[in-house]
Specification:
Layout: H1 3-8, H2 11-30, H3 38-54, H4 71-79, H5 85-104, H6 114-127, H7 135-148, E1 151-154, E2 163-166, H8 168-178, H9 185-191, H10 195-218, H11 227-231, E3 237-238, H12 245-252, E4 259-263, E5 268-272, H13 276-304, H14 308-325, H15 339-347, H16 354-373, H17 375-378, H18 383-407, H19 411-416
Helix pairs in contact: 2-6, 4-5, 5-7, 6-15, 6-16, 7-8, 7-15, 8-9, 8-10, 9-14, 12-18, 13-14, 14-15, 14-18, 16-18
């Protein structure tokens, strides 16, 4: 074991790095990159405060952008009355990250997983304060607990491969988190298997959803329980989304009637121009088609005997990228979703996993450059930030293509790579 490996598996060094990164994110989010923590004070806190005024619960008996479980961290930050709301939120997010990393490495008992822990820490450092100042970061921390619960077991009687996964606890975690932020459906898709295992998995998912819906019913939920589904349908194309890059360039080049404008209701910058409304409408269908293709490739992989750990990681990565690349909303915090399937691949010790590791770290760094560092220049379509945004989106698309190709390979092709 060389010195770099020994240092990377040093628990004290990892703990120091965790503290340093999170303190750095706190400082950046409170000073230089203060805009990146705006959602905490100007969305989450305002929603919680409004409960005392109108008694309306978003996602339960009122329309809301999120599934109702998203209330839990928002309310928890309010309950911590010994400090201000933003500090409480950042503390909760940081502690969840520490706990998730601890679970991944088995609190020092799983030395093979230190690489996954270091990757996650490097990613959130590269992404910046949005990694801990958005609901997405909370959802990722909890999803990582699901990854840490996955167990690989030998199964010589399995006709589909030599090993199988015990995934029930992970599916419960992922399903619960999907009622906070829907993206973890991609992780569920990655774990879905075939035949008898699939029946058990679907039962676990349905049972978990049943308990959550029953709890919502006790709180007085109506059809607004599902309002997060249709709330997004009327949104335009947000400037950071890959598809919006077309109109961002048209605006930068002052071509046609394209422009970038601020939507006061959604509190976001969007694009407008020829064909934008039609494309915005079609993006939902495009995403559904992409997810269907991913599901088909996973199913084919199981039939051809691809190793389940590879299928789970690649399937989750591809499905997550489907949700980002074909999304008309391109918020910077969405990038943190990718960490979970990449961590999954590192957790399983997959070979040839450098491409997603390097690509996603680069995506994180470019995203922080875009938001918040260059954001005020991007919204007026200056050329340099438009180029940076374009580079980031091209890497996203390239990674999705790579992931689809890898997911479609047969076992013999995987061993030859």
């Amino acid at each position: 074991m060389n010195i770099i490996t020994r240092l990377s598996r040093n628990s004290a060094l990892l703990l120091i790095a965790i503290i340093a990164v999170h303190v750095g994110l706190w400082i950046l989010g409170s000073t230089i990159e203060a805009d990146s923590t705006g959602d905490v004070e100007y969305s989450y806190k305002l929603w919680v405060d409004a409960l005392h005024v109108n008694g309306k619960w978003g996602g339960i008996n009122a329309v809301w952008v999120y599934p109702f479980v998203a209330w839990i961290p928002m309310l928890l930050a309010k309950i911590l009355v010994f400090t201000d709301y933003k500090t409480a939120w950042l503390a909760i997010a940081s502690l969840l990250n520490i706990f998730a990393i601890g679970q991944l490495i088995g609190w020092g008992r799983r030395p093979q997983n230190y690489k996954a822990a270091w990757y996650f820490l490097a990613f959130i450092a590269a992404l910046g304060p949005v990694a801990i100042s958005r609901l997405d970061g909370i959802s990722v921390s909890i999803a990582l607990l699901g990854v840490a619960s996955l167990q690989v077991v030998s199964n010589s009687n399995d006709s589909f491969g030599k090993i199988s996964l015990r995934s029930n606890r992970a599916l419960i975690w992922f399903t619960v988190v999907a009622w906070m932020k829907v993206w973890t459906v991609a992780l569920v898709i990655g774990l879905l298997s075939t035949k008898e295992t699939l029946r058990r998995q679907l039962w676990v998912i349905a049972s978990t959803c049943g308990v959550i819906i029953a709890f919502a019913a006790l709180l007085g939920a109506n059809l607004n329980l599902f309002s997060f589904i249709w709330f997004q349908s009327n949104r335009g194309l947000q400037i950071e989304s890959p598809i919006a890059n077309i109109w961002v360039w048209l605006t930068a080049l002052k071509s046609g009637d394209s422009l970038i404008y601020f939507d006061n209701m959604l509190i976001t910058w969007q694009v407008s121009g020829p064909g934008d409304a039609l494309v915005s409408t079609l993006m939902g269908l495009a995403m559904l088609v992409a997810i269907s293709i991913t599901g088909y490739l996973i199913w084919q992989g199981h039939k051809s005997g691809v190793e389940v750990t590879r299928l789970a990681s690649l399937g989750a990565l591809t499905a997550t990228l489907d949700l980002i690349v074909f999304n008309k909303v391109g918020s910077p915090q969405y990038q943190i979703w990718i960490t979970v399937p990449v961590v999954m691949g590192l957790y399983f010790g997959l070979k040839n996993w450098r491409v997603p590791v390097i690509a996603t770290l680069l995506l994180a760094a470019l995203t922080q450059v875009i938001y918040p560092i260059m954001y005020t220049h991007l919204v007026v379509a200056e050329i340099l930030p438009v180029w940076v945004l374009t580079a980031r989106n091209l890497i996203l698309i390239a990674l999705l293509v790579w992931s689809n190709i890898q997911l479609g390979k047969k076992p013999s092709e995987n061993s030859a790579v």
